[in-house]
Known about the structure:
The chain has helices at residues 11-14, 39-51, 68-77, 85-118, and strands at 5-9, 23-28, 58-62, 79-82.
Amino acid sequence: MDEALIILFGSRAKGTARESSDFDVAVLKDHPIDYFGSEFGDMLRFMSEKFHMPYDRIDLVDLFDASPLLWHEAATHGKLLQGIEGQFVGFKIRAWKRFMGAQKLYRMRFTHLAEKMKTFT
């Protein structure tokens, strides 16, 4: 876990959480998280112990192959829990580039859906 960037995002990072809110935590490693082996459970236990989060309220996402939109959310509103600050800055730059690169696709998708919706009215 030492080499991973661990980022708190969502309502807890924004300061808008309620007592019952979960903990949205993004992890970026140099490989995808193995959800079916012991790695996923080990990560949840580590975060629960180190950051004092209830184990069953951690919503863990793997940024390795996540969407540009999720990268953007974690970069824009996220708080670095573990990792090197310089790597977090690098992640924010990559997230912005990925998000901007995806804008054309998002616009095309929106236009396509808007045209489809017209056929239903």
